[in-house]
Amino acid sequence: MIISARGLRKEFTVSRKVGRFRRERHVVSAVDGVDLTVERGELLGYIGPNGAGKSTTLKMLTGVLTPSAGEVSVCGLEPVAKRTTLARRIGVVFGQRSQLWWDLPLEESFSLLRHIYRVPEGDHAARLKQCTDLLGLDEFQRTPVRQLSLGQRMRGELTAALLHGPEVLFLDEPTIGLDVLSKQAVRTFLADVDKRGDNTVVLTTHDLADIEKLCRRLVVIDHGRVVHDGTLDELHARYRSRRTIVADLDNPWPEGLTLPGAVVTAVEADARRVTLTLDGMAAGEVVAALAQAVSLRDLSVQEPDIEDVVARLYRDES
Amino acid sequence: MADIRDTARVYGRVLRAQVRSQWQYRTSMVLEILGSMVVNGLDIATVFVLFSVTGALGGFTGTEVLLMAALSAASFTVADLVAGSADKLREYVRSGLFDSLLLRPLSALLQLAVITFALRRIGRAVQGVVLYIVALCVADIPWTVERALFAAIVPISGAVFFASLFIGGATVAFWWVESGEVANAFTYGGRDFTSYPSTMYGGWFRDLFTLGIGFGFVAYFPSLVLLGKPDPLGLPTAVAWGSPLVAVVAACVATAFWRFGVRHYRSTGS
User: Fold this and answer.
1) Please, which pLDDT band fits residue A314 given cuts at 50, 70 and 90?
2) DSSP state string for A201-243
3) Is B165 a member of any domain?
4) A202-238 residue pLDDT tens
């Protein structure tokens, strides 16, 4: 296995003002005993609500933060002790922390990184060409990074993280804030990276589409603990997450109306919008029954929200 | 050895990229360089005016005091050029940008020095060194080979000493982001202290700063060695010759403290 963590824990001391001068200090566990193993070539989705400890875990795996307790090994190295050796073997994209030189053209960042990571010229050119083709970097390689759009910059960051041929790629919310097209470009690119199988990828995200398209395996964490480790289907099955139908109606929803196989969970907008949660029946049958009962103006079927699943997960735990 | 040269070349490239970045705003940079040279020039003029009035200070003649002031200035301005932006660490810690330094296969400390390198400080460093050379020429120095070597080494060791202070002061930010100007009391305060003969100060204050913190080994003791004078305060001349070693000790302490600090880096959310 290429990543292993056992009983990984990170505590922060937080001090809070009490009265005018006194401060109360207490210890908060951002990561509270995480066990995790990742095999070479896997693409792992590491998900959880804000503040769950995702980024903190990633920072301990990459040698940025020193764990408070537990054992961790990445590429057979202890991240903090062997930080610079490990840095050559991993690639990292932290959405908010650019690896690029703000005032210089994108291509100069790439050439600087080649020297920093001491990549042979041939390897560098080959990898850069691959990324350029897949991510369409040609149009903006000569533009200073500060003038790039967020989507363009993220494509630059991904390239920067891959140029030294890392064994493991850590991506912290690589699609956050991107427009639909850029999101798709990033996803397609990552799917391609995954297909080639040269890199192990650990990805944190809030985007359900990222997870569905990319992650065969999901590790869900909340309050610093792993609450699920398995596939997305297993997650939905385990927590009975259900799809919902949102229907806009021509006339107000008749009070007290019920449909077999679905539960009315909300009636809004002067009773002209109704939300039904599927309960054991296929969406088609419920929609057919709905169309018979009321006059439909518009209708959408929504996939279960991963955040809801996670929220439910945590309620079950406690 | 070849490896060290390669590594140095990598930092050189990153440094040049940094300068190129700053050069994007060249008008502002040129004005800043000129501005700081004018300010520093006035500082130097103050020293001359002071000597022309008093003639002697703390038992030393004008040119002797000038040597001390110039050695202090050269040491400080060179350290300021190399490590003076270390206090920017505060911003990197506060914003979490320090993460990206730790993700590269390079020393975080040297990266910090390189990426916060401020070209505008180069004017002052040149002035400081020139002033030192002038002071060496006008002072009454009984030149020997040893003294010539010593004269070449001490501004460097003095710069190392000040750089250690800059780094040590900046490292506090790992625990105390709002450390503000506390560190400056030692760096800028140290520059002012070392500009004058230690004999000028009195009592425990003098002993603490001259020997305790080691400011005496930046300019005062080395100048006595160059001038071939015994220390009126009684430090043996052989110890004064060892002034550069104090800088080595300071550098070791500062880097150990820095390493300790990096392990306490907390980063920020997300």
Assistant:
1) low
2) EEEE-S-HHHHHHH-SEEEEEETTEEEEEE-HHHHHHHTT---
3) yes
4) 999 877 778 878 888 999 888 889 988 988 778 777 7
pLDDT at A50 over 90: no
B269 lies in some domain: no
| Residue A246 contacts B, CB cutoff 8 Å | no
- Give the closest-approach CA distance of B216 to chain A in angstroms: 37
CATH topology of domain A3-238: Rossmann fold (3.40.50)
Say whether pLDDT at B270 is over 60: no
Amino acid type, A218: L
Q: Does B268 map to a domain?
A: no
How far apart CA B21 and CA B9 sit, in angstroms, is: 18
- Token duo for residue B245: 């070693």
Burial B61-81 (b: 16+ CB within 10 A, else e): ebebbbbbbbbbbbbbbbbbb
- Cα separation, B191 vs B207, in Å, equals 16
Q: How far apart are CA A241 and CA A277, in angstroms?
A: 10
Q: Is A318 on the interface with B (CB under 8 A)?
A: no
Domain total of chain B: 1
Provide, as residue numbers in chain A, all residues whose Cβ is less than 8 Å from the Cβ of B9. Answer: 115
Q: Residue A181, exposed/middle/buried by CB under 10 A (0-12, 13-18, 19+)?
A: exposed
Tell me whether residue B270 is in a domain.
no
CA distance A108 to chain B (A): 8
Read off the DSSP letter of residue B210. Answer: I
How far is CA A146 from each of CA A97, A103, A106, A156, rounded to the nearest angstrom?
A: 13, 6, 9, 12
Helix (H) or strand (E) holding B270: none
Listed residue (B97, B58, B102) closest to B199, CA to CA: B58
